[in-house]
Amino acid sequence: MVTVSEAIQLITNNVKSSATIKRSPISGALNCVLVEDVFSPISMPPFRQSAMDGYAICSHDNMEYTVVGEVAAGSGSNPHLNPGEAVRIFTGAPVPDTADRVVIQEKVQRQDNSILLEEPFRLGANIRPVGEQLYKGDTVMAAGMRITPAGIGLLAGVGVSEVAVATKPRVAIVVTGDELKAAGESLEHGQIYESNGAMLAAVLSDKGYKDSEVLKAEDDLVVLTNTLQRALSGADVVLVSGGISVGDYDFVKTALNDLGVEQVFYKVRQKPGKPLLFGKKEQKLVFALPGNPASALSCFYVYVLLALRLWEGDKQASTRFQFAKIESNYHKKGDRAQFLKAKTGIDNTVAILDGQASSMLQSFAAADALVFLDEEVSRIEQESLVPYLNIL
């Protein structure tokens, strides 16, 4: 059995980038990882640009100026201004070469073709210089960065239409349990509806991993082994739901061993999610997750998501904890580390929710964070800082 920090470190040490490279239009690159540096083909902005609506002026010793024209956004004009002359200008428009500052319209009194400045403006005021954000040839985004919506905007803003990105792993979800029925079917006594497959497919899609399939396996060693073999042959990452504990019908560990999956660790000193197995077969990764839904989802956020990002070559991949003030006292039972379903609030606070049992998803559905209490922590006082994992 390993600690939480040891499990994270073992995943970090054992998962190497296995992605291939593909060219993608930026419209399809959201949440992908860059595999090549992107260099700017232009300076940004490529011309001196007005930051405000107002008047571009060529300064002189008087506060009064004569308006001799107008420059709108997208205009190609570059009027010559003599000292004491101004042009009406708009945000984003090119500033004439002979203008030395832009005065905002709220600080100007205009009458006919004359304006009077209400206050002086510094040299270069409200003018974005050429290359203020990037110069031509500068690195726009570096290899290993994940492309966010802001990244899409940045790439589009410098005229980049296509990038080289890492492919995403194919994921197979193997759901075990004879007691499980599909939603919409009738339940017999002793049966429950299967939720982990749908839940794991949904969280994968939410995090940008769309290529997944759900396979069902009976609680039979031969059937399970054949299903896992199919999953391993067609996927890069296999997630197994249930069957990894110590019950008489928990065959997952045996089946994985028979298929040649190397066990990296089995069991983590944590609650929920103690019976977690991480293994690999060549470049393929396997996570055997607990069957209880809240346990499975907690393990996904803490461990599986980290492994998926490392597989892609994300150089920023890590299990990042933030800190917030806990809203009330909390006493931790037991000596294992705990991940607690929680809700963040205003003023950097976090509240631990009711319904922490590993079988309960109702509280998880309302949560946006997992508060982490390490093994040696027994009690947390109100307004103490606690680490938490943002799961949205």
Describe this structure in words.
The protein contains seven helices and 28 strands. By secondary structure, it is of the alpha/beta class. It has a six-stranded mixed beta sheet with strand order 7-4-6-5-9-8, with no helix packed on it. Strands 16-13-17-21-20-18 form a six-stranded mixed beta sheet, sandwiched between helices. Strands 22-25-24-26-28 form a five-stranded mixed barrel. It is elongated. A hairpin with a 2-residue loop joins β20 and β21. α1 packs parallel to α6 (293-312), α3 (196-206) runs parallel beside α6 (293-312) and α4 packs across α5 (252-258).
Topology:
Blueprint: H1 4-14, E1 21-25, E2 38-39, E3 49-50, E4 54-57, E5 64-71, E6 85-89, E7 101-104, E8 108-111, E9 114-117, E10 127-128, E11 139-141, H2 149-157, E12 162-166, E13 171-176, E14 180-181, E15 192-193, H3 196-206, E16 212-217, H4 221-234, E17 237-241, H5 252-258, E18 262-266, E19 270-271, E20 277-281, E21 284-289, H6 293-312, E22 322-326, E23 330-331, E24 337-345, E25 349-352, H7 362-366, E26 369-373, E27 379-380, E28 385-390
Parallel strand pairs: 5-6, 13-16, 13-17, 14-15, 17-21, 19-24, 22-25
Antiparallel strand pairs: 1-12, 2-11, 3-10, 4-6, 4-7, 5-9, 8-9, 18-20, 20-21, 22-28, 23-27, 24-25, 24-26, 26-28
Helix pairs in contact: 1-6, 3-6, 4-5
Describe this structure in a few short sentences.
The protein is α/β, with parallel strands linked by helices and 392 residues long. The protein is built from 7 helices and 28 strands.
Instruction: Note the main sheet.
Output: 6 strands, mixed
* Low-confidence sequence ranges: none
Fraction of helical residues: 10-25%
Walk across the major sheet and give the strand order.
7-4-6-5-9-8
What is the 3D shape?
Answer: elongated
What share of the residues does DSSP label as strand, in percent? Answer: 25-35%
| Number of helical elements | 7
Oligomer: single chain
Structural class: alpha/beta
Number of strands: 28
C-alpha termini separation: 29 Å
| Rg over C-alpha atoms, rounded to the nearest angstrom | 29 Å
Mean pLDDT: 94
